[in-house]
Amino acid sequence: MIATAGAQRQLAVCVDDFGLHDGVNQAVFDLLALRRISAVSCLVDGPSWVAGATALREAVGQPDAPVADVGLHLNFTETLDVAAQSACPSQPLGALIQACYLRRLDVAVLAREIERQWDRFEACWGRAPDFIDGHQHAHQLPQIRDALLQVLRRRCPSGAAGPRPWVRQCRSPGWRAVLVGISVSDTVKAAIIGTLGATVLGRAVGRLGLRHSERLLGVYPFDADAVAYLRRWQAWLSLVRPQGDLLMCHPSVPMQKAPPWPDVIAPSRYMEHAVLTGEAFGALLKAGGVRIVRLGEASRL
Description:
The protein has eleven helices and eight strands. By secondary structure, the protein is α/β, with parallel strands linked by helices. It has a single domain, classed as Alpha-Beta Barrel (TIM Barrel), CATH 3.20.20.370. Strands 1, 2, 3, 4, 5, 6, 7 and 8 form an eight-stranded parallel sheet that branches. Strand 4, helix 5 and strand 5 form a beta-alpha-beta unit. Helix 4 crosses helix 5. The relative contact order is 0.18.
């Protein structure tokens, strides 16, 4: 964990897509060693999930004192395991959004798919996920959101013993982001993501007695520009409220063997890894007075 003298603000930093390929996994291990992330979100149908889980367990540490939360990155938009996903095939994001808003999907099928991915996580990880979120933020869409809430009610009943997962809320920081240097286009993109269901999901999760993150930072167009990415981080850090905000990132190291499908944001993944492991980023964190913590460590959610 990174701490600075007198630091008052806390931020959860999450790497998405663990298990997608070995490059993402290695980036996670690098950043955990540097204590520059505090959450790892896992694609359980990814070809590198099972093989990477053992090393991830060692990197995260003992369950009673982990350095990061490990969660389930629910996937409805990427075909990673054709056989496993056959009962609920993935759709491109645009088609999925349209189907959800037109109520064309079967919530019962979606709930079974969430249960399948959750079971696959537990079978490999050995315990329930620390949190739930969604690949391309699909967990907040109508119908998928309904299915997720059904599963959470069954698996995490009020009053049940043991830890209960928190849920990512994709609420944008709003137009204040422009005032601190985030472009209008980045701000609009973040706002669009938030309007797809952030507030509705956050309120529903709260009614279940579960925690959720607050605002989502880290939205940008994957332009692979290291200078611009570091500038964005400076602006994002200036937006961090005392507790509960979460910043997502998508780093990877280059792989010797390319994955069997095109990773369209690969150049930006490599750029993110270089920035997040660099000295300039460490100095930025210190100057910003922001402490990277697990959401469970934050004094309030």
